[in-house]
Amino acid sequence: MSTSPRPDTIDPHSPSVEPALEAYASDPLHYKTQLAAIERVSQALFQTIDLDDLVETTLHIALEEVGAEAGSILLADPEKEALIFQYSIGDKPVPRGTAIPWDKGISGSVFQSGEPRITSRAHHDANHLHQIDQATGFVTRDMITVPLRRWRGEPIGVLNVLNKRTGPLTNHDLGLLTIISAFAALAIQQAKQFEDAKKAEVVTLLGDIGHDMKNLLTPVQTGVELLRDVVKDLFGAMNSAELTHNKTNKKICDESVEIAQNGIRRLHDRVKEMADCVKGLSSPPVFALCSVRPVILEVFHTLQGLARDKQITLRTDGLESLPEFHADERRLYNAFYNLINNAIPETPQGGSITVRGHLDQDTGGIALAVADTGHGMPPEIRDRLFSAKAVSTKKGGTGLGTKIVKDVVDAHKGTIWVESQPGIGTTFHLRFPLDPRAPQAQPHH
User: For the chain, how are helix, strand and coil distributed in percent, rounded to 5?
Assistant: First the structure.
């Protein structure tokens, strides 16, 4: 049997893309296909500036043009020195957010060299990361890996196309994917620049809003303090009999003043936290012994009006048995406020939201869950919730709420994941060590 390569396949010792394009352009039929691919890709990719839409569209086009079973797009994360699966298509896709070292595997090799590669027998290739196949149950037979990069620029990721349905992967396939990857890289870079510009604009806007809010709330805060002094003087002048008779009124006045003061403080914190989240900043957490139940009850107290309007019941279960643990109470409040506030509009009238808690037997830490009887969410939305980028599935949403929650969990060295079924409800699971400053075993889920 001859071992010489087929005339229409890539020589593995010649990684440069030029041979593929030269052979590609010399064939009139291939050249016509090339022009059709250019037209299709340019029309599809430059109709949107949403990064996720671009990545998804690119991958669908790549698979259709080559006639492959599956594929993935991985984008580089310089901070983690990793390639992150941004989107994956196939019967057994790789979960979004899965990371591999950017110098490992075939994808890492292509990313580092900037040169495309055809792998005809992946299971015999020493560079192939078999653990990805093992984790998903997918069997990679052959693959083309192409760098995503601007013209003569540094790669920003890679595109993988796996298991061609008919025949071997060829120069023609590589030429098509080279065109697609070039257009995609340009569009992705533009989308990222737009996102960065939008974030900068949001930061400026939030700063202006925060300044205006402080000015507007100053007289409100002054009025609340005056009211507190008046109430104190009024009830302080009463005798014992009058105090007993007006005990309920005094309690209502005290609680009203406290609600107003806490609301002003939380509002300031909320705007600052959103601005820091957009900028990617995070101040060090302030840890102190904290009890979960009072934090949750304060969140319920703040949101009880919104829940009451929809006849939604807010419940706790098992929180009173939890021990105190070291936490940043302000941030903990913000995390649960976001989770519960987001759950209320997704829960039908008459439903419920329950915060449950128990000791995690595996680590000795605290296990919490926020469960609603809401509409639930499909798997593709569920799997995107805690990706590196803030993602919102709501029209006009920013995704900041989800990112704030994840930042709080990370600051406490905890973990978070979500279970959801459409039509049944959603449960967010959170695990926190008793002391995040001490080495802790990682929770299992």
Answer: 50, 20, 30
Nearest partner of 60 among 93, 23, 83, judged by Cα: 93
Domain span(s) for CATH 3.30.565.10 in the chain: 285-445
Q: What is the DSSP string of 31-73?
A: HHHHHHHHHHHHHHHTT---HHHHHHHHHHHHHHHHTEEEEEE
Alpha helices in 280-354 (DSSP H): 292-309, 329-346
Whole-model pTM over 0.70: no
Asked whether residue 282 carries a pLDDT value surpassing 90, the answer given is no
Across 211-220, average pLDDT: 60
CA angle 62, 63, 67 (to 5 degrees): 125
Burial class (CB in 10 A: 0-12, 13-18, 19+), 160: buried
189 close to 149: Cβ distance less than 8 angstroms: no
Q: What is the pLDDT of residues 402-421, one digit of tens each?
A: 777 888 898 899 999 999 98
DSSP letter assigned to residue 283 = P
Q: What is the pLDDT of residues 296-321, one digit of tens each?
A: 998 998 888 889 888 999 999 999 99
Q: Quote the tokens at residue 439.
A: 């080495």
- For helices 18-26 and 28-45, the axis angle rounded to 10 degrees is 110
Under 8 Å between Cβ of 397 and 336: no
Residue whose tokens read 């009173």:
320
Q: What is the Cα–Cα distance from 336 to 351, expressed in whole angstroms?
A: 18
* CA gap 289, 76 in Å, rounded: 39
- Measured between alpha carbons, how far is residue 218 from residues 204, 221, 256, 309, 366 in Å? 21, 5, 18, 29, 39
Higher pLDDT, 418 or 389: 418
Cα distances from 84 to residues 87, 156, 294, 388, in angstroms, run 9, 11, 39, 9
Residue 81: name the closest of 50, 48, 104, 115 by CA.
Answer: 104
Judged against a pLDDT cut of 90, whether residue 289 lies above it is answered with yes
Residue spans in the chain of domains classed CATH 3.30.450.40: 18-195
pLDDT classification of 396: cutoffs 50, 70, 90: very low
Of residues 364 and 231, more confidently modeled: 364
More confidently predicted of 20 and 93 = 93
DSSP, collapsed to helix, strand or coil, labels residue 268 as: helix
The confidence score (pLDDT) of residue 240 equals: 80
Instruction: Tell me the residue type at 40.
Output: R
Fold type of domain 18-195: Beta-Lactamase (3.30.450)
Interval 176-188: pLDDT, tens: 777 677 766 666 6
Superfamily of domain 285-445: Histidine kinase-like ATPase, C-terminal domain (3.30.565.10)
